[in-house]
Amino acid sequence: MLIRAFVQSTLSSEIQVVACNRSPEKLEQLQTRYPQVQVCETAEETVSASDVVFLCVKPGDAPGVINQVSPFIREDHYFVSINSHVLLEEMEALLPCRVAKVIPSITQVALAGVTLVMHGNRTTIEDRHEVESLLEAISKPIVVEEADLRVCSDLSSCGPAFLAVLLQEFAMAAVRQGGIPRDLADALVKDMTLGLGKLLTEEGFEFSDVIRRVSVPGGITAEGIKVLQPSMSGIFDQLLVTTRSKAHGHKAAPCKVELTEYED
Q1: Among candidates 58, 56, 40, which has minimal Cα distance to 48?
Q2: CB 132 within 8 A of CB 141
Q3: CB 149 within 8 A of CB 118
Q4: Strands across the sheet with 52-55, in order?
Q5: Is residue 225 domain-resident?
Q6: DSSP for 114-133?
Q7: Which tens digits make up the pLDDT trace of 66-94?
Q8: Does residue 19 sit in the same domain as residue 109?
Q9: Distance in angstroms (rounded) separating the CA atoms of residues 107 and 5
Q10: What span, in angstroms and rounded, lies between the C-alpha atoms of 50 and 42?
Q11: Which of 133, 209, 241, 251 could form a disulfide with 255 if both were Cys (CB 3.0 to 4.6 A apart)?
Q12: Is the pLDDT of residue 259 over 50?
């Protein structure tokens, strides 16, 4: 995902993407799809050929890969992990270079959305600008505290899937209740979502502005919101409790939140 985004970004003529993968067939597919990407057979070779190193592996594999490449890391390297479980201080204890942590989103495929950024203690203002400038070409980088990563990534990285579940059900309800074709329902929901996104990000609308402008008192939308209120009460609180518990490796306790008014 990141390779595709960087290759298609405005920086594509200014940077050289170097990549490796433990599966040779995946590496071959990658090179076939993006001939401009330089492929390497090993992680050590990739690190040696790079200035900024992105570590994109599963949590359990991260420590082993870091130890594997650490002899090849120079002090002038910038080492960036996309793994939320690898702490900045852990990387700084193992590596002699500047480190950062970023959490991308599937929205980077469209060169959009948010990338969460956390900087290590060795980085200067200039260093931080360097990494953020890279990410600006494929997303909107937002700096967050590492302690806030779990809930922030639920919004920016997990959020597209959570909302897609709701939007898909909205479209399917229109098919069931209105009898319209599935492709028409999907198209209407997708384009509505695109327009809503532009209102919120480009036109300066707040969530409450959209609700107020569309929901005329006593009108159809207002009646629909009344249906949503009981079902939505506390549902996202429970979702965030569940994801936090999953990240910490234990079962989520029941979460009960009662809202007496509609909260936007």
Answers
A1: 40
A2: yes
A3: yes
A4: 52-55, 78-81, 98-103, 114-119, 140-143
A5: yes
A6: EEEEEE-TT--HHHHHHHHH
A7: 999 999 999 999 999 998 888 999 999 99
A8: yes
A9: 10
A10: 13
A11: 241
A12: no
